[in-house]
Amino acid sequence: MKRSLGWRALLSLLVIGLSIFLVIPPKEKIRLGLDLKGGVHLALQVMTDDAVNIETDQAIARLQEQLKKKEIAFEKISKINPGHFRAEGIKIDDEGKIREILDDFFRDWNYSFSGQAVTLNLRPEVDRYIRDQAVNQALETIRNRIDQFGVAEPTIQRQGLAGERIIVELPGVENPERVKNIIRTTALLEFKLVKAGPAPDEETLLKEFGGEIPEDAEVVRGDPKRTSGGYYLVSKVAAITGKDLRTARRSVDEWNNPAVAFSLSPDGARRFEKVTSENIGKPLAIVLDGRVQSAPTIQDRISDSGIIHGRFTIEEAEDLALVLRAGALPASIRYLEERTVGPALGLDSIRKGLRAGIIALVVVMIFMVYYYRLSGINAVVALILNMIIIFGGLGYFRATLTLPGIAGIILTIGMAVDANILIFERIREELAAGKGVINSVAAGFSRAFRTILDSNLTTIIAAIFLFQFGTGPVKGFAVTLIIGILASMFTAVFVSRLIFDFILLKKKRPDRLSI
Amino acid sequence: MVTLFKQPNIKFLKYKYFAFALSGLIILAGLLNITLGKGLKFGIDFTGGTFIRLKFREPITTEEIRARLTPKGLGNSIIQEIERGHKEYQIRTAGLIKRGEEKPEEIETHVVIGNMVVEALQKPEDAAQIAKGFKDLNSVDQKELINLLLPTFPEEAEEAAKKIIALRDEKGIIDTFEDLRQIGLKQEIIKYLQEKCFLGSLCVLSRETVGPQAGKELRRKAILATVWALIGMLVYIALRFKLAYGVAGVLTLAHDVLVTLSIYSFTDREINLPIIAAILTLVGYSINDTIVIFDRVRENLKILRKLPLEELMNISINQTLSRTVLTAGTTLVAVLFLFLFGGKVINDFAFTLLIGLIIGTYSSVYQSCPLVLYWHKIFQPKKRLK
After folding, report:
1. Is A364–B334 a contact, with Cβ atoms under 8 angstroms apart?
2. Which residue among B214, B236, B276 sits closest to A43, beta carbon to beta carbon?
3. Which of A45, A406, A418 lies at the smallest CB-CB distance from B327?
4. Does residue B195 sit in the same domain as residue B315?
């Protein structure tokens, strides 16, 4: 027994020492949740339909091109919904040729012929892959943007493995509006030649084209914040896009107004030079997310750098440069939840939570010593060690302490002494039955252990599901509860037993026990 | 030796009909109240909406707040005072989900409505001051404040700004410029701030907006968490004990949840995510209690073979009684302090734990064993019970 006492003492000291090491200094090791520290919590959904839509549009364009190339007649190709389109008015005789094209160039699509039409469906696994990639890419882009915006310790993660939701937590940020805009901007930048406009409405705009939109053009509106509004007719194909940018930064235009300066990649520069040199004197629209920001006239050939102006404020120019640097989102984003907690509320919560916790701890300790005398001190030691291990555990798992988490710790105080009480009551029973002190202690521990194990494991089962389905504060609560229960099993069963054994060993004639 | 009970011998199972009737009555009243009466009040986590906590510089009454919100069509918001002193309030925009059709941009609507609440409650002077170019010292962030001070006080700007923000965080709102003197700010700085700034009439402590879609999702998850937790425990107990005990344990828990919800329906408290967490915790706690008793029954079945089950259960409950009361007592003390001193934010959560603990302890003693007894009477009437 003496020898086993040695390694048990060593193990206990090791765990305690490790816990203390893990939690010092507490300000760095214990991460506070947003509800305590203050900050912004955002839940957003990636509209992956957008990504599938783009894929579908591209496939339609490809099919048109191929059919024309092979001189196969068709009436029209139309999109039914994302991942689903149909070519109509084809000749029955051409079916074989079309099949060939589809087999060669549309491997990602399932097709079926019915009379004069062929319907194409995106394969389910490809659909899943595209959506999955869209979310991953969005996650990466958002992370980039937030890193550039400069927030300390942001949390940006996908919810669930195949989820289309992203959780963004930004501690210390008090004004969510600006960050929300930075995250949400799709930031799809396109430079397109202007064919007509701006005009007050579509009718006036299309007058010289006979009221029809030319095949190679499209109508876009001016951003009401940046231009005088109105409609523009611009070429469908962009001269360059945001992908061709090398860098972007806030700058000023020749009138000293805030603007965004950019430089282009070598390939983009070549294409831009060609377009600008061929169109000197014509206006070029700068389109961001489908809205014209400005449409300056091309004065000269531009190759590798340029400037975007509109009516920006300094912050807006800065944010636009930021999102252009970080890249475009593959799909649009919709906000689902938005929670902002000011630091004042968090401070107040910490203060009150701590006070409640300390009072509870003290009262429970006094009670244990009163009721179980010297053995009660044993329980008090176990309780203190339990607290240390909980904080060590929080530090080790880099878990976040939330307000419900503090409540979880306070609840653990109550539940941790339960194991002690179970054991002590057992020992008392054994003593009352006339067994010796050493035997009573041994029997008390071994009999109570099974009860403690069963009852604590069921509580852990409940906590695991809380963790699985909870978010934010609730998750924090589940973590502290699980760590607390495990810690209490260690301290109340293992450490407390060790203390008993140690005391009993020291005594010459252990015939009395203060319990 | 201090003891709570000297060899107790209370005939707990004698009162089983009374206990069933009592619980049944509470649940019935609760269900009636939920379906026909005031019902459960779900918070924004489940319904969607905006929830704002505000601190005012000057005392204000609930009626006054409502009077200011009514012209904006927000008079039906739920307004609650957080702390005595008529300065801190929480406001939940209510019934706004019904406004117009459910658009995908709904959360934006909620954000706009939230802005309307804040604007409506700000004094007209605030807007006038801002229009004149003054900064609100109760809403500027640290960066802005530093930028404001930097040109005139290049050396002290950062430290002064930090002190001011710390004071605001500490108090929730800065009442008078006099407060700034007490944190050791130089007279010149205070004078400068008085010229450039004003003290806004309110400060937003927190603000939460949940879209209807997220609400639906959170509701689904809460139900899933509860159901899976119950199934998990049923399986565990059935494996460690017997099916009868598993079923009785889970029925006891269902009883706990129902009684808690019933009592909850008679209060003004709202059900949000943390409340679900509290209910699941008490589920975990109550099963803990129940298992201690089941464990003793299991043990006694081996020792006292001749005894009828009902009597054996009674003995088991009595043997574990001091433990049950002691544990419930210490836990209750801990939660009680959380309830009394934990602050308003955690109050609903602590309240749920508090009533839950009492119900959980009661049900472990009065419901769990009788349920096992009935299971045996129904399914194994002839077999010797184990």
Report:
1. yes
2. B214
3. A418
4. no
Residue B98 sits in a domain whose CATH number is 3.30.70
Read off the amino acid at residue A167.
I
Q: Which residues contact B30 (CB under 8 A, 6 or more apart)?
A: B258, B259, B261, B262, B263, B265, B266
Q: For residue B199, is pLDDT > 60? A: yes
Please tell me whether residues B231 and B305 are part of one structural domain. yes
Q: Are residues B288 and B370 in the same domain?
A: yes
Chain A, chain B: beta-carbon pairs less than 8 Å apart: 249
Whether residue B327 is found in the same domain as residue B374? yes
Amino acid, res. B101: E
In chain B, which residue's Cα lies nearest the Cα of A350? B342
Which of B141, B210, B326 faces A337 most closely, judged by CB atoms?
A: B210
In terms of residue numbers, what domain contains B328?
12-43+211-379
Contact A277, A299 (CB under 8 A): no
Contact of B41 with B271, CB cutoff 8 Å: yes
**pLDDT, tens only, A450-460:** 888 988 888 88
Instruction: Indicate whether B275 and B297 sit together in one domain.
Output: yes
Judge: A407–B172 Cβ closer than 8 Å, yes or no. Answer: no
Please judge whether B334 and A367 are an interchain contact, meaning their C-beta atoms are less than 8 angstroms apart. no
In this predicted model, what pLDDT tens digit does every residue of B130-170 receive, in sequence order?
888 888 888 887 777 888 888 888 888 888 888 888 888 88
Q: Which of B203, B233, B263 is the last residue of a domain?
A: B203
Interface predicted TM-score of the whole assembly (ipTM), two decimals: 0.80
A360/B334 Cβ within 8 A: yes
Residue B212 identity? P
